[in-house]
Each structure stands twice: as C-alpha cells, then as structure tokens.
Amino acid sequence: MRFICSLLSLPLDMIPESLERFNFIPNENYTKLMKAKELYDPCEELFREVFVGSNQFLPPELRKGWILNGLIKLGLNRATDSKSFIRVAEEIENLSKMPTPPENLRERAKIVVRHFYYYATELNLSSEAWEKLSKIKFVPSKPVNPPFLETAYSKIPELYDFDSLCLPKYRNICWTQCPIYDDDVLPDSNICRLFPEMNEIETPIVINHLYAIIRNIVRADLSGWKDAKMSELLRTVIFQIYKHLNEVPKQELKSYLKIKLKADPKIFLNGEDPFDPYNWVSGNQLILNIDDDIDSGNRAVCGYLAICKRLLHICEAQEMKSPCMNIRVPDEYSQRDKIAKSFARFLDEKPNLVTNKSPQQNYERNGMQKFHDIFFNVHGEIIGSNRYVLAASANYFERMFTAGTMESNPWKPVYVNIDDIKPESFRIMLKWLYGRRLEDALSEIKMSQATDEISFYLEIYIDLLNACEKYDLQELKRLIEHKIVKSDLIRAQNVLEVKKWAEKYNAMQLFSYCKDYKKENLALLVRHRCADLLDVDEDELSELLDVDENELSEALDDYEDEIDNLESSEEDIWDCKIDTEFEKYSSW
C-alpha cells in the first residue's frame, strides 16, 4: 500500500498512462486487485446507493489528496458522466439477473432513473451513448390492472429498457405488446423534449396489439370481457386503436399494415358487439356515406368508425362520393327588407273608395284572427293570414289580390282550398314570407321518434319546393336547394326520387347535383338500387359491375324509367304504386 500511495502521489505527468490496464488497486475490503476504472468513489451518492455491498469502492487510504488525483487520471469513477452512468445502469441490470436479486433493487433502480432525469442535460449523452443506454434494462415497470392483466405483456413488476416501455397514456393501445412505466419513474415533459421517442409509440406495436386483441380476446371468447360493461370497454379500446392509426402518416402505416392484412384482413369492428363474428369485416367490405348495408359484402360504415376515413381508405374501403358543386344562394338576402320596401310602396298608393257594406262573416273569429282577411283550408286545417302582408312578400299574391277577381274584394274574407301541400310545410312557407328565418320556422315542427332525421327534413323540403313552384318563390327555392345539399340529405336510397322531384318543381340546381351524384357513384347505386328491379342474384349483380360504364348507366336509367311508367298509369292506380315504390326504395 505504501508503494501504491507513493506511486499515485507523483505529479500527474509522471504517472504512466499504461497503468490503466493493470489490476493493482485493492478494493475496499482488500479482497481483490482491480483496475482504477473498475472502482468507484463512495463519496458520490449515486455510486454509494447502487454499488453498496459490491466491494467496488476504494479503500479509505486511497480517498485523499494527490493519491485521489492520480487515480482519477487512471480512470477512477469519482463523478457521474455519460460513461460511468451507463456502467451504473448496467450494474442494476446485472443485479436483476442474479438468482436472488437484492430486496431493495427496485428502489435502487428508481434512484438511478431519477438521477438520469435530473442530470440528463449535464450528462450530455451522444447519440451512440443514448442508443446503448436505451437498451439497458434498469427502468421499473408496473403491471396493468384487470381486466387487462390476463392478456398483458408484463404481469409482474420488472425492469425494462427505455425502448420497450410505454407511457400509461398509451396503455389501451399497447398493453399486450409493451410494459408500462412505473408511476414513480414517469418521464416529464423536459425529458420527452430531449428524447422525443420516449413520448411516442411505434406503429407496428399498435397494429400487433389490435391483432392480439382480436386473437386472444375476441376469437378466444374470453369470458372476463363479455358482460355489458366490459364489452363496452373493449369497444372503446378498439376505437382508440383505430383513431390512433388514423393519425399515422400514410406511408408508415401502409407499409406494415399491408403485410398483416394479407394474412388476416378482418380488423374492423363494424357494430356494437365485438363478440359477434358478423361485426368483424375487412376494409374492402365497407362503404362510407351510405346509411344501410347493400349486402354482406358491402356494408355501411357504422357511426363511430366513420371518422377514421383515412384509415378506411388505406384499407381499401369504398366511398359514396358527394359531387363538388356550389349551390347559388342569395347573398345576405333578407325577406324583411323586401317586406319593408313593399309596405312603403303600397303606402304611397292612393286607395280607391269603396261604399258597399262589408258582409257578415259566416263563422266567429277570436283574438288576432279577427284581423285576418284570407283563410287557407290546408287538408282540413284552417290557417289565417293577411292579404296585405302576403302581397308585400310575394309577387304571386300581389297579382292575385289586384287582378279584379273575388280575391281582390277588400271587404270580403277570402277562402282558399289547398290539397297538394301539407299544413306544416304551408305554415313554414307563410312564416318565411312574414320574415322569419327558415331554420327558426323548421325548428318549431316536432319530429316524431319513429321518424329518422333525413326523412323528416327531406319530406318537408320537397313539399316546400312544390309550394315555391306554385307561388313563384324563387329565393326560397334556392335556399331550400342549398339546405338539401349542404345538410347531406341526398343519399343512395333517395337520390333518384329527389332527382325526379327536383325536375318536377324546376329546382334545377338540385337536379344537376343529383345527376352528378348518380354519375360519381354509378356502380354502387346500381348495386344498392337496382338488384330487385333487374331480377338478378348477388353473383349476377357482381358480374354486372364488370360491364361497360355506359351499360351500367343504362341499367340505372331502367330503374328511373320504371318510376316514370308508374306515373303514366291511371290516376287511382298510380297513387298506390308510387307509394309502394317509395316505401320500398325510399327512407321517407
């Protein structure tokens, strides 16, 4: 020891560097001679915590003055740098592999990880050093809770490397493929900025996790997941996986997913019950933007899955496309402004004196009804209004009330029978003429629970188009066309019928939109609408889709001609047949 102390006390430039290679320094218990770089100064807290009981510390005689400086030159681990920290992490991993690891190993590991988080900037790891450190198993994990535990990658608390671990926020999309960080060693935002990969999850992990769920839970019919609450949780987890994959860059997702899909393409849960095999489909069985299944091989995408459009397209889902078309609508059109201008014009006119006495009304009118002078009998419902306001609102009514007919008599109430417009629609039209916004007038009509929203609004809008054509309300007509298109009410099950109504009521913007919709989605419309009409089975229908597009268009035109033929039938038969067709092919 005297010789070693004398040697190490020499001026630093006189200590040969070749001594680094020799085992000549005793450990703390004098049981072994070691290289200087294999020994640690116990004054450093991290070394003291990790290497306790390892006989890798300096003996007390060598921990002072010039001797210590000489040892530092030969590689003694006195302060923590990137190299010594990696050796500390490796020591934790080696201890974990012992037949009987120290009881406090997890606590030691937590100290090491926290030290890394706190001094990460000072350690200044090179990319090579980080690559090495990220693969050392010294980071504590925690097992997931039931019901995830049965299929978890890690079922007991163990030590893993940074590359393998995932943050708890990713648990639902990775628990079968990755261990999860222990809560005591979660990386904070500063660490995640220094090492971004710690805050990320690799796409193959998520895809493999989805397949593991399908294989080990769904197809294995795992009982722990089958009650209503657990089934709902499983459905939520699967949706979170789809949502994550939907955000992955296309090329990154496609390259790996394509390989997996070849072996097992049915990865989409298109229904409520994950344990019903019918609900699991491949991407090419799904069609976006239709409301009902065409057949088992052509399914409508369910609501929660529809928002993952990008993922569905990558997996070859089809889509019923909406044509790109700008519907002209009056700019900042105000019916109230029109009424105000008309009122002013009417006030400037000099009235004609009428001397005859007003006749008695044939029924009693109460409240504000006594000021009404025109009454519409709409399918048996009496709706009162005012000729002055109607004339100010629409040219049709102005002509009607100033043409010298019986409707022009100001002393006698006018009664008009209407049997081709429904009372609700007629009230909406009158409210709009009075200056009310169309949306506000519509909101006052109650929709029954048995009626779906598309059918409810479309039926009213078509009825209003009839009224617009009848009373020459072009501004309202353009507004309704705009509403039908922008509210996405045109669907596969109604586009042909709406096209006919649009043509009948001269709603030419809507008519053009329906034509473009038909052209954009020709093959799907034939499959959806013409199977029964053409009297073909599913195989024959699939062959039909392989024919020339012109022939396909002619097939769809045949369907429209069938509806036209119904209109040429006798009046009493026509009503019955057209109702039957609408019941069969329409949602309203």
TrEMBL record:
SUPFAM superfamilies found in the cross-reference section: POZ domain (SSF54695)
Domain BTB, residue spans: 372-442
A Pfam entry, by short name: BTB
PROSITE patterns: BTB
Top-level taxon of origin: Eukaryota
Gene3D superfamilies listed in its UniProt record: Potassium Channel Kv1.1, Chain A
Stored PANTHER family: SPECKLE-TYPE POZ PROTEIN
Name of the protein in question: BTB domain-containing protein
Native source species: Rhizophagus irregularis (strain DAOM 181602 / DAOM 197198 / MUCL 43194) (Arbuscular mycorrhizal fungus)
Lineage, top ranks: Eukaryota, Fungi, Fungi incertae sedis, Mucoromycota, Glomeromycotina
